[in-house]
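#struct-pred

JT: dropping the chains for the assembly here, can someone run the whole complex?
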Amino acid sequence: MSTTTIPAAGTARADGRSMVEIRELHKSYGDLHVLQGLSLDVAEGEVVCLIGASGSGKSTLLRCINRLETWDAGSIAVNGDLIGYRSSERGGVPVLKELKAREVRKQRAEIGMVFQHFNLFPHLTVMENLVEAPVNVAGVPRREAVATAEQLLAMVGLAEKAKSYPRHLSGGQQQRVAIARALAMKPRLMLFDEPTSALDPELVKEVLHAMKQLAETGMTMVVVTHEMTFAREVAGRVAFVDGGQIVEVGPPEQVLDNPTHPRAQAFLSRLV
Amino acid sequence: MSVSTTEANPPPLEALRHPGRWVAGAAAILLAFVVLESILGNSRLQWDVVGEYLFDEGIMKGLRLTIILTFAVTAVGMLLGTLIATARMSKNPVLAWLAWFYVWVFRSVPLLVQLLLWFNIAYLYPKIEIGLPFLPPLIEGDANKLISATTAAFLGLTLHEAAYAAEIVRGGILSVDPGQTEAGDALGMSRARILRRIVLPQAMRSIVPAAGNLLIGTLKGTAIVSVIAVDELLYAAQFIYNRTFEVVPLLVVATLWYMFMTAVLSVLQYFVERYYGRGATRSTTASPWAQAKAVFLRARGVFTTPTGGKA
Ligand SMILES: Nc1ncnc2c1ncn2[C@@H]1O[C@H](COP(=O)(O)OP(=O)(O)O)[C@@H](O)[C@H]1O
Ligand SMILES: [Mg+2]
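RK: done, full complex below.
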């Protein structure tokens, strides 16, 4: 398998069906054309790391996948369902019609997201953070949601913190709670936007460990990160974002060690 | 490497003394005593008359109306204010603009003018009909009968309060990190649920102190409705002194009640603030009692932790 270059429709691994299909995505903020016809496929169970310079549109791309952002052209499908739109036609011509807010919420509920600054709810205990959405969005009985939350907290090594408030935890612990909170909705896909960038160096490892564990369970993950060791160890593929497109994508050793695109070469040489 | 002390164990710590604080404290107490003495010792205040009317039946009736009016105005005003604040921040430009207009109008018209306008509404609209356009009215009647002095007072105070409450609530909502709404969105929560469950409880931390001020302001603001002959606390006092000419003692009676109610509300505010402050800081805040005790014990050289617990 070779590294795909412009226009990089990321080739999904041959062994899995696509969990995420992004096609020709365009997005502008005013005059700023942030995403310029970006395409990417992520296979079921695959971990894809997005790398690229600050401001290249990695966060924007991630936020489009769960429709926290709207876009101007192109399409995203997760698990075969179009995100934010449904296929229709007008006068015999196919069009995509925007979904209602309620329908978008249902799609978001199946996609987990972890933020750089954790965004835990500070006025709720760890347990309340974890059961809020399962009970009130997914309609899971509280008793069941609490049992799931306890399992997830044990998985991220924070079983005894259920009654704590987020601010009484370290940054690394907070981010692990945030991962558990996203998992509590039983998502099919997890999005991570620089999950370790706000952490002190000694706390990065515990979060990456939790993410690696999660990857080993077969979760499909799209991770924006600068942690090259993590990308090397855990990612199936690494995608380099530049100029609103994915200009290089492939196995980590290929993209990180022998990048072919000049911008990727420049970016990676600066990192070392 | 050990700390360079000659002894094996470092000697006990001695806190810095603050003699200046003791001097300033003593001076302040002395000053307060002089002022209090001159007031309490003034025979012209006729404390016996104050005592006689403090629990007078008319005063009690006025007090009751003041309390009812304060709570009704605050409850409806805060609710209306929250709605106006959300309208102001909505993506619908018509709603946002109307909300801005409301706040502008009711913050610019002086409360006294507004009350007089409501009181004289019959001049503008002799007959009032409430209902949907083109359909028979649900309520109709003579404006003077529908809008009594008390109703006019309630309307005027509430509409005034709502404009200020809207700004307080909006400020509170803006003080919450947008990442909180984003996290709620990402979990699939509805906008209404995010507002109620995530944003407003956090906004409360800045809303409560401002709303506490507003509530106390409203309590005293009710005195202004005495001008349209609403039988609240001040009007009740005036009603009596117009007959007996004991003006100052009856004003003192009303003042004592306002002070008492403000004290009760302040204590209430303290507990509400503590409730909404949970999870907000790393250390749990001690009650004022524990804090005072800690200061006293520290002054006597007993060591306690800064939060008031025993070391
Ligand atoms: N809400 C916004 N309004 C205007 N410009 C934005 C907004 N969000 C992001 N941008 C701009 O879009 C570009 C891409 O941003 P982002 O996706 O956050 O980049 P990255 O995550 O790769 O650093 C940046 O130039 C940023 O300033
Ligand atoms: Mg970013």
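JT: nice. Residues 303-311 of chain B have pLDDT under 50 and may be disordered. Residues 65-233 of chain B form a domain with the MetI-like fold fold (CATH 1.10.3720.10).
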